[in-house]
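Bug #77: duplicate submission created two jobs. Keeping one. Sequence:
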Amino acid sequence: MYVVVAIAALAISASKFWDWSDAQLSTRRKERAEKKALEDQRAEVIGFLESISDTEREILSYLVQKNQQSFVCSEESAVVATLVHKHLVVAAKDGPFDMDAWPHMVPNHVWQELQRRKDEFNTAGLQEAPPWHEEQERYVD
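Kept job's structure:
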């Protein structure tokens, strides 16, 4: 009788172990798939660096040369909006910010790539005023 009980307990334990094991494998597969998707998305974003406009390059060059990963500019800046759309720059979601001084930041993975390719974003004769200020001045009469 003890043998039957022991075998039944062992069968239940084995069943629970296999269920747990399958759940662990499923979780690991899901985590790997999510990690791969994130890596693919980041690679796509880095790929946008090959097709940026001269003005966008000027902004990123300014930030690289000033070693400035974050900056503030008008929330309505068209050229910065294109960088945000390409996920090369991220704008703050909300907060008590002035519309003309909205915080923006270059994401870490983009910043690391910009640092790696610093020579490509080297501008001789760096301006004192940030490039996005010129855009704002054009619209002010």
